[in-house]
Amino acid sequence: MCEPTTIFAGATLVAGALSAYNQYQTGKYSAAVAERNADVAEAQAQDSINRGNAQAEEVRRRNRQVAGTQAATMGATGAELSTGNALDIFGDTAQFGTLDTLTTVNNSQREAYGYQAQSANYDAQAVSARKQGNIGAATTLLTTPLKAYGAYQIGGGEWNPFKTKTGTTPMLDSGAMGSDFRFKIGGY
């Protein structure tokens, strides 16, 4: 049967592993949510462009209708349609109609750009969330053994991985590094 200090240290290791797994999964989930948000923003950008094109076509249609109404009205009053004021009116109608169309397209492009910028931000957020999850999990996995060792010592455990029975550090005693180099824990 295990002694309580070993059980406590083991429980600390298990809790650390679960915490690392949770951090990894949280990062993965957050990245998936951000990627989905990026897809939605991209779809909104495309929708904005499509709506802008449809509205621009509607503006063109109305302008053609206005030009036709103007021509019919002027023709009914006996005005000369190929000279003077009639040409100026037709030119102004065409000019302002084109301006309205371009403004409609430009506004939809600006709206789409806003959604595309949002999409890029979500993509960056996804990368960051994934990295945070991975780094958090790695950090937890690296620090958990030290926490478990601390819990073991707090519980009264006496094992020390840094000392041999003679009190020297295993990697730095005379057998590992040569007879003239010794390092003792706590000494210089």
Distance between the termini: 40 Å
The assembly state of the depicted protein chains is single chain
Number of domains: 2
The proportion of residues forming helix, as a percent range, comes to over 70%
Number of helices: 3
Find the structural class using helix and strand composition.
mainly alpha
Rough shape?
rod-shaped
Question: What portion of the residues fall into strands of 2 or more residues?
Answer: under 5%
Order of helices and strands: HHH
Number of beta strands: 0
**Uncertain ranges:** 176-188
Biggest sheet descriptor: none
Structure explained in plain terms:
The chain has 188 residues and is an all-alpha fold. Helix content is 79%, strand content 0%. The protein is built from 3 helices and no strands. It has helices at residues 4-77, 84-154, 174-177. The longest helix is centred in the N-terminal third of the chain and has 74 residues, at 4-77. Pfam families: T7_gp14 (PF24072).
